[in-house]
Amino acid sequence: MSEIPALDKDKGPAKVHLLPTTYLPTLPPQAEAYEYHRTAHTPIIIDNGSTNLRWGFGSSSRPNEEPKTFTGPNAIAKYKERKTNKPLLLFGEAIDSESGARGQARTPWEGDVLLNFDALENALDYAFIQLGVDTQTVDHPILMTERLCSPLHSRALTSELMFELYSVPSLTYSIDGVMSFYQNHRTTPLNSPFMSNGLVISFNTASTSVIPILRGKGILSLAKRIPWGASQSSEYLLKLMQLKYPNFPTRVTSTHTNWMFHNFCEVSSDFPSLLRQLQDPLHFRASEVVVQFPFVLPVTEEKTEEELARITERRKEQGKKLQEMAANKRMEKLLQKETDLQYLTSLKESKGTETKKEWMSKLQAENLDSEVALDEIIKKLEGDLKRARKKEAGEVDDGPQEEPSFPLLDVPDLELDEEGIKEKKKQRLLKAGWDARARARREKEREREEKEKEEKKEEDERDQDLGGWSRKLRQEQEALMSKIKERSRRKAALTDRKSAAAQARMKNIASLAADDRVPKAKKRKAGGEDMFGADDADWAIYRKINTAAPSSDEEDDMIQLQIIEQKLLTHDPTFTLQNTHASIATQRSALMSAFRPSYEEGDVEGNARIHLNTERWRVPEAYFSPAMAGVDSAGITEVIQNLIPSFLESRSRPGVLDYLDDRRQVIQNIFLTGQPSLIPGFSTRLETSLKSLLPPDSKVTITRAANPALDAWKGMAAFSRTDEFKSAGCAMTKEEYEEYGGDRVKRWWGGNWNGEIGNSVGGMKVDGENFVIEETMDVDS
């Protein structure tokens, strides 16, 4: 597919895009000389958008020159300066120059409805001042945009603001999408009839409008508004980023995601096919865009090479000193043991020269009970000295091999005194330990011999039939991998309380909690002490109900799997590292690693990055399927599909003109306007969708406004220079406002109510002629 760039393995990592910083506001261009416009009563054009406010005179004071346009963010903030303690009223980009004013910013719009008229009044004050209006009233006709299907209450308050506060002579409302279409399809000269046909898709900040244009007039009875726009897309992208990076070190705002949406998002011509293509981790990584957020590196004191060399030398000296101290300590212990051994040996030799009572008193002075204890200590010291000397000589100590003697075990207890009986018990314990160690050595030797026999047998089997041996080991590997996978699946299922494994676990817990399930004698013993765990069966139940308890077989399975894979890697040339369990598990998790690459804990720069991959296509896809973002509405394709029967089917009646060719042009001439229309792929996606809905021989033409952000203002400026506008047939005058009130709606082709009143036969009057649109026509003002 064309959405994903080709992967070039010779290139380095993906390009990192730096997040734009906040710039200081720039002063607007110098206003034209107001004296010309004062005397000419030049109309003032105001494009009241949710994001930006655009204003200016409809014509220039110089001939053959385009009128100038003033633009600024449509927001105001009341702020008190700290130094002078004076209240300030900030508009547009000036809000970003004061950090304290950002939290107090207000916009005239609430979603897609004009509600905050205090903010609108302040914004209009700024606009009129920039235009040079220096009178108490604004003595200029006003041409102003409004949203499709704007509420009458909002229009009435806007009219009240214009006529009561500014005393404008006339006020005209127009739809921005229709005026952008007029700018790109009007004929010259300006006063010639506007007879173009097309379907306008206007992308606004909080909505998307679909307006059919037939012979230069908007068919508003068939117009639709989708509650999804650029602001919802930015919020959707922000939520996706918050889910993807819950512990992101920098605060991500809707302003950041709005910049990402307009610069990095694309519309896929086939979204399901794109998702299938992104299953390949290599294509997944090739499609990502990395955004670097600001970060602060930790301050580290850099040292010179001389200081580093000095520190290294100091550490070596300290290591040598520690080694010398440890060696001296070992030598001191060795000398102490030799001294003790000489003393105890002389003590044992003095037995024949002294009386028994004196000799026993010497033993008691050394905390020795009998001669046997003295022999054991002497024997232990000799063994320690022998092992220490072997260690110094580099020899391996295999431990004592000769069996010690236990003479008292064969002596009856009647022939021994109390001390002898104690010594006999001690020798019995020593004998039992010696026998256990001897059995362990014999068992180890037997296991070694069996292992050698198994290896010999396996080697013979491998030499006779390498393929059969390899298939056998591969089957064992598959069985172990299946067991490990099933164990992981069970652990994952236990986290879902509605899964069968979790339900079975709750049943086991309920069975253990029931008193009549387990005998009381087993549950309570020794004065109410809980005896659960006394049997091995209890621990089997515990492992079954405890999700955190490790399996006793899990480690053994992993060890056995590693042994099998090592054998296959050594002897089977067809078995490579790609066939190992670790490689397969890594490949399965490669998509997750590509979805959100992980950086080391100390990598401050890497942890301040956002990787955009699937979100680049998922967020714009909501224009065609708002349900994926939680909005219960039809998408652009579905709205157009519902309009097709009204413009392709012939419904002519006697005495009524049909204009079937013009109606077909409406659905085949798609016009895109608004800033989101600049996102790559919109035209291709719409063309692909429409070709599947229209007849095979239908031609679809999709055009985009020359300047999607400014063409609505330019279209109004061009219309303000026509005789149609000057005749005031589309404007509401101050006299009409005073007579009828702010709810007055003037019917004209560019406004919200353009005279679409169905007659008794279901027709509509356009340019003095009738043509059929629908059998019935219900128009809501």
TrEMBL record:
Stretches with biased composition (Basic and acidic residues): 434-456
Annotated family: Belongs to the actin family.
Region described as Disordered: spans on this chain: 390-413, 425-472
Name of the featured protein: Actin-related protein Arp5p
Coiled-coil stretches noted in the UniProt entry, renumbered to this chain: 301-328
The species this protein was found in: Crepidotus variabilis
Keyword presence, Coiled coil: yes
Keywords of the record: Coiled coil
